[in-house]
Amino acid sequence: MKSLQIYIDGEFFPEADAKVSVFDHGLLYGDGIFEGIRFYNGRVFELEAHLARLWDSAKAICLTIPLTVEELQEATLETIRRNELRDGYIRLLITRGVGNLGLSPDRCKKASVIIIASTIQLYPAEKYAVGMEMVTCSTRRCSPAALSPAVKSLNYLNNIMAKIEATHAGADEGLMLNEEGYVAECTGDNIFVIKNGRVTTPPISSGALCGITRRVVFEICADIGIPICEAQMTRYDVYTADECFLTGTAAEVIAAIRLDTRAIGTGKPGALTERIIARFRELTQSTGTPIYS
Ligand code: PXG
Hints:
This protein is α+β, with helices and mostly antiparallel strands. It folds into two domains: 5-118, Aminotransferase class 4, branched-chain amino acid transferase, N-terminal domain (D-amino Acid Aminotransferase, Chain A, domain 1, 2-Layer Sandwich), CATH 3.30.470.10; 127-285, D-amino Acid Aminotransferase, subunit A, domain 2 (D-amino Acid Aminotransferase, Chain A, domain 2). The chain is 28% helix and 27% strand. The chain contains eight helices and 16 strands. Strands 7, 8, 9, 10, 11, 12, 13, 14 and 15 form a nine-stranded mixed sheet that branches. β11 (198-201), α6 and β12 (228-230) form a beta-alpha-beta unit. The longest helix is centred in the last third of the chain and has 16 residues, at 271-286. It is globular, with a radius of gyration of 19 Å. Bound molecules: 3-[O-phosphonopyridoxyl]--amino-benzoic acid (PXG). Residues 36, 122, 159, 185, 188-190, 209, 211-214, 247-250 line the site of 3-[O-phosphonopyridoxyl]--amino-benzoic acid.
């Protein structure tokens, strides 16, 4: 297989030579932010929204991105072109940059920009047909009072600890509750339930990332006439739902059929979920920023 070309601070490096300093605070402290973006059929899906969220994450942690939005957009497209890809996944990282062994970012002179264009498969292909099994994790989603879950930071240990629990329990995904016990999200996905034809998802204030796929699902539901709203929810709402599905750039839209070994609805992907997935696939194939024009 051809070596990937990785963008680091304005230059392209073959995969084996794409390296960062051990004094980069992204490595030393998880001090930085990222975006996971997909491209389909020669177009980047929701690129503007991902860049807007990246700038919000940067602002929230007092990080200056050393490029303009237009420059970063062009660098992202160019990274895909260099790798001659039409379908895949982009990991865009902004690290605090090289500093010293103290946690203060003051010594980090300039943030680093890294762009990887590759592919990703979060869950095995058959899960998209049969649905996912979830367990509730005892690791609670980070309190917004400690670190806002809206910041897509390079420190994912909270989610990783939950993912480890889910894997140890033999499940595909972990459901994360907030400190009060309300449903927040899964380890790398937002969660939705459907009851009596109405779609509900927890508000961002329950401790979820403001997912871009989540927003696209609101637009799809508005388009095809399915009522959708945000509401605080507990596990009761998931156990008693007719259908449940998860959303994320990496995950896309995928049915969840069990929580804590209990079947949700019929224990099979539901009809409304399938309609939303079909419309999502149409959108990903037909919209987005052209890469080769
Ligand atoms: N919650 C969390 C905690 C996430 O990390 C989402 C929700 C969904 O957001 P979007 O905007 O993608 O719809 C995410 C996104 C990975 C990976 O490598 C994870 C995400 C995105 C891309 C890749 O596991 N999570």
